[in-house]
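Demo today. Your pick:
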Amino acid sequence: MQYAPSDLKPRERYKVLTSFVLPRPIAWVTTIGPTGVVNAAPFSFFNVFCEDPPLCMFAANLRPDGRVKDTVINIRRTAEFVVNMTDEPLARAMHESSGDFPPEVGEPDYLDLKLAPSTKITVPRLADAPFAMECKTWKEIDVNGDRLLVMGEGIHFHIRDELWDHAAMRVHMERYHPIGRMFADRYCRTDDRVVFPPAEGAKTAV
């Protein structure tokens, strides 16, 4: 089976990409509106791309009715946001926050999600997130006028204490249960893991 992207409608391309590029990490992005309402919205076209500086990027398309999403409006006003990661206890609330909420209704308030102050920006983080990264906008890329790629520089990290081995600088994987996005309303758990020995590389004859 083969396709040329030009032969597919945008929605069909979306279905092909999201059906095979998975599981995808989810950026649960908190922003703050002009009246102080805190918005929380999940984005699964997301990942980290660099560590020096620490950069992440997510894609925000327009709403089905053509309106710009509150997340984008808020980021363009403040140039600040927090990327919160999701684990199993938070997964249902994360999914519910993807619904349609008017700007005056904050998802954290509506879904009884606890907020905590950030350290270097005004936007609060989700207090129960296993990992949260305070971000300043690094760059924006407009795609065809209907999608915005938001690149953020992580300027402060928050890690749930029991998840991190500070001495080894390593996550306790047996305690961290992230949720991945599949497609449509489907998600996956990530506890079925495979560990390989270190790769040996090419073996040369002696």
About this structure: The chain has one domain: 5-188.
